[in-house]
C-alpha cells in the first residue's frame, strides 16, 4: 500500500495521466492529484517526475517496502525540507514550522548561513539557517529506508544550442507551447485572476489566458509605480484591473509577518510588496496566474547583456542575481567570520556542469538552479500560502524550458534587447509597445522610504539591539546605516539585508508573537 504523507502542488497534464494510469478524472482535484501521484509511483517508481508537468513536492510511504519516498519538482517551485533527529528518525515536509513542532527537532542556528545571506540576500543551496535542517533541492528525490537516507538527482538543466532555426521559428514554438500549457493550468470550473505588472511576462500570460480580472500593486511615488502601465495593458486586452496601493506604513508594518511566514530570512525588498499584493488579491479570488521563470530561461535580466564581457571570469564571482556584500566587508562587520565559507562555493558544481558553454547560458543556469529556488519560488509559495491564495506560473514549465535549453544565446539577448524570442512570441497577441517594453523589474521605493525617519525607527532599533550585538560589530553596521542615511542610497540593500535577518532571528529565536 502507498500512502501520500505530504503533497503540495498542481499537475498540469492530469487528463493525459488519468487516461494512461486508469484514474477516474471526474473525482475532485485534490483527490485526483493524490491518486495520480500514487499510481505514478506504482507505475514508474523513482522515474515518476519525468512523466509529470507541473509544480509539486511530495512524500509518500511505501508500506510493503517500509520506505519513505520524497520528491521535489525540477525547478523547486514548491519547498521541501528534511531533518534527521538524534534518535534516528526523519522529520520532513513543506513547512519548516511544522517540522520544528515535531518531537526530536532541536532548534539551533546555523550561523554559517549568515555569511552567504549577506552576499546573496537569500538562502542558497541545500543548507538552511536551522542547523541540521536541509532543503531537498530541485530535481532530486529522497529515499529513507532502514534508517538510511539517500538523495538522488533525477534531473538537471542541460543545454544544446540548435542553430538551424530562425527567430520566428523560435517565437512560433514558444507561442504554440504556451498555448497548450494555458489549456492545462486550470480546469473549466476554476476561475483565475492574473497578476499584472508593466512587463512582458505577466502581460503575455494574461493575453493567453481567460482571466477577466488583473491584480497590480503601486505606490504614490510615480517613478516606482508600474500600476499605470498595468492598467493600460488590462484596458487594451479588455480586462479589469484591481490596484493595491502600498504605503510605507503598511510596508514596514508587515515585515515581521513576511519573515515569519517565509521561515527563512529573505532580503528581497519586493517580497514585502508581493506579500501585500497576495493578501489584497486573496480578498476576491483564490487562484491567480503569475509570470515567473521567463527571465531566467530566456535572458531577461539586463546583466545578461554583459555575459560575453565576463567570459571565463564568471566562475570567480557570479553566484546569481545578487551579490551585494564582499568578503572584506563581511569580515569587518561580523563577529564570527569564517574565511572558508564563500558564496561562490554554492555555485561551484554548476560551473563544472556547464564547462564549455557560452557565458549567457552559464549565467542563466546559475540563476535557474540557485536564485529561482532560493528567492523567487520561495517567495511565491510562502506568501501566497500565508494569504490563502494559490499561484500558478505557466511560464515555469519543462516544455518552456526545453525550448530555452535549445535556443542560441543570440535569440535571448542582443545589444538592444533582452528576451528577444519571447518578446517576438508575445507580440503575436500584444501590441509591440507592450511586448518590447524595457524591463523595469518589480521595483519598490524602499531606498527612499527607509531614509525617512518616519519609517526607519525599527531599523535603528534592530541595528542597536541585543540581537545585532550577537552577530555584528554594532558600530560597523551603524556606519553602513549612517552612510546610507547620509546620502549613499546604494547602501540600502546592505541595510535591508541586515535588517531582515535581524527581524527573522527575533521571529524564530526570541520571544515573538505575530500580531
Structure notes:
The chain is α/β, with parallel strands linked by helices and 515 residues long. The chain has two domains: 2-153, 4-Layer Sandwich (Glutamine Phosphoribosylpyrophosphate, subunit 1, domain 1), CATH 3.60.20.10; 167-328 and 357-435, HUPs (Rossmann fold). 44% of the residues lie in helices and 13% in strands. The chain contains 24 helices and 13 strands. The protein has a five-stranded antiparallel beta sheet, with helices on one face. The longest helix is centred in the last third of the chain and has 29 residues, at 359-387. It is globular. The mean pLDDT is 95.
Keywords, please?
515 residues; Glutamine Phosphoribosylpyrophosphate, subunit 1, domain 1; 5-stranded antiparallel β-sheet; 5-stranded parallel β-sheet; 24 helices; 13 strands; 44% helix; 13% strand; globular
Amino acid at each position: 500500500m502507498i500512502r501520500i504523507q505530504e503533497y503540495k502542488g498542481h499537475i498540469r497534464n492530469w487528463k493525459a495521466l488519468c487516461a494512461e494510469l486508469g484514474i477516474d478524472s471526474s473525482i475532485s482535484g485534490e483527490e485526483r492529484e493524490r491518486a495520480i501521484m500514487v499510481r505514478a509511483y506504482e507505475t514508474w517508481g523513482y522515474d515518476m517526475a519525468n512523466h509529470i508537468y507541473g509544480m509539486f513536492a511530495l512524500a509518500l510511504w511505501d508500506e510493503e517496502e517500509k520506505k519513505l519516498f520524497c520528491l521535489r519538482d525540477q525547478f523547486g517551485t514548491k519547498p521541501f525540507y528534511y531533518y534527521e533527529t538524534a534518535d534516528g528518525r526523519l522529520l520532513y515536509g513543506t513547512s519548516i514550522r511544522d517540522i520544528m513542532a515535531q518531537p526530536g527537532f532541536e532548534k539551533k542556528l546555523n550561523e554559517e548561513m549568515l555569511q552567504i545571506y549577506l552576499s546573496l540576500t537569500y538562502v542558497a543551496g541545500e543548507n538552511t539557517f536551522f542547523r541540521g535542517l536541509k532543503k531537498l533541492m530541485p530535481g532530486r528525490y529522497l529515499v529513507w529506508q532502514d534508517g538510511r537516507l539517500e538523495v538522488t538527482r533525477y534531473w538537471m538543466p542541460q543545454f544544446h544550442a540548435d542553430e538551424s532555426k530562425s527567430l520566428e521559428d523560435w517565437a512560433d514554438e514558444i507561442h504554440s507551447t504556451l498555448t497548450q500549457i494555458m489549456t492545462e493550468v486550470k480546469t473549466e470550473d476554476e476561475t483565475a485572476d492574473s497578476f499584472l505588472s508593466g512587463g512582458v511576462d505577466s502581460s503575455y500570460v494574461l493575453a493567453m489566458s481567460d482571466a477577466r480580472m488583473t491584480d497590480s500593486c503601486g505606490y504614490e511615488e510615480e517613478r516606482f509605480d508600474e500600476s499605470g502601465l498595468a492598467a493600460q495593458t488590462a484596458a487594451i486586452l479588455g480586462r479589469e484591473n484591481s490596484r493595491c496601493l502600498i504605503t510605507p506604513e503598511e510596508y514596514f508594518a508587515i515585515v515581521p509577518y513576511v519573515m515569519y511566514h517565509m521561515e527563512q530570512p529573505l532580503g528581497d525588498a519586493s517580497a514585502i510588496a508581493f506579500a501585500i499584493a497576495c493578501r489584497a488579491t486573496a480578498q476576491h479570488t483564490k487562484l491567480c496566474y503569475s509570470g515567473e521563470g521567463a527571465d531566467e530561461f530566456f535572458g531577461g535580466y539586463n546583466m545578461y547583456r554583459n555575459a560575453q564581457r565576463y567570459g571565463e571570469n564568471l566562475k570567480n564571482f557570479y553566484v546569481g542575481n545578487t551579490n551585494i556584500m564582499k568578503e572584506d566587508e563581511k569580515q569587518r562587520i561580523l563577529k564570527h567570520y569564517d574565511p572558508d565559507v564563500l558564496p561562490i562555493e554554492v555555485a561551484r558544481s554548476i560551473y563544472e556542469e556547464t564547462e564549455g558553454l557560452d557565458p549567457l547560458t552559464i549565467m542563466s543556469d546559475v540563476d535557474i538552479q540557485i536564485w529561482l529556488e532560493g528567492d523567487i519560488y520561495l517567495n511565491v509559495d510562502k506568501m501566497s500560502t500565508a494569504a490563502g491564495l494559490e499561484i500558478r506560473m505557466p511560464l515555469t514549465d519543462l516544455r518552456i524550458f526545453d525550448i530555452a535549453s535549445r535556443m542560441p544565446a543570440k535569440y535571448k539577448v542582443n545589444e538592444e534587447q533582452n528576451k528577444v524570442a519571447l518578446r517576438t512570441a508575445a507580440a503575436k497577441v500584444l501590441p509591440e509597445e507592450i511586448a518590447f517594453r524595457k524591463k523595469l523589474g518589480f521595483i519598490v521605493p524602499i531606498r527612499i522610504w527607509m531614509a525617512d525617519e518616519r519609517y526607519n525607527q525599527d531599523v535603528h532599533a534592530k541595528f542597536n539591539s541585543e540581537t545585532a550585538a550577537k552577530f555584528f560589530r554594532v558600530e560597523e553596521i551603524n556606519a553602513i546605516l549612517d552612510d546610507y542615511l547620509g546620502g549613499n542610497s546604494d547602501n540600502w540593500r546592505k541595510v535591508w539585508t541586515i535588517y531582515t535577518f535581524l527581524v527573522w532571528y527575533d521571529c524564530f529565536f526570541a520571544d515573538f508573537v505575530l500580531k
